[in-house]
Amino acid sequence: MPHFSRLTDIITCNLTDILSQVADPEATLREILTEMQEGLQACARNLQTSLSSQQRLEQEISSCELQSSEWKSKARQALLHAHEDSARQALQRSIEFEDLIAGLRPELEAATSNSRNMTRIRKALDARYAEALRTLQTLTGSTDPFTSSTEPTTHPLPPSSRPSTDSLELQLEALRKDLRTPPNPTNPRHEPAGPTP
Q1: What is the pLDDT of residues 128-151, one digit of tens each?
Q2: C-alpha–C-alpha distance, residues 160 and 174, integer Å
Q3: Nearest CA among 45, 9, 29 for reference residue 124
């Protein structure tokens, strides 16, 4: 039986509540992990589609801008040579490209917004999946919960879907720097290191 009907159901689920209501938490959690993996794969496909659409629209707008500019230049040249009809036709072509750009920009904004939204969802799904994995490790008492014969049908997420090492190292260095900063009595962020009397 599916546990989730939408990707947002995975993000908003409470694993503790779900597992407290079932007879076999480990089996249920393995089903949940499989569903989460399927959700992550669907999310990755949606994100790739959004990014491709965004890139295609950016290229099309750029091409239209270039062509509009070229037709304006042709109109100028035609006017310099006193060819008013040719200038008018060239300007008409330039306007057509500008109208097309005006129609494409909202589509680009929508694709960009969708890409950002899918990226946020992907990160939240990654976090929920990591939580479910840790819970399974606790239930099985194993550091590799997928050694069981009841492992999910797909493999754990590839490392590329998790935060990059560079990102983690930057955050770790920021924490180190924060800890090295001397306590400031007027700043409540820095508490004294020792126990309170």
Answers
A1: 999 999 999 998 887 665 554 444
A2: 23
A3: 9
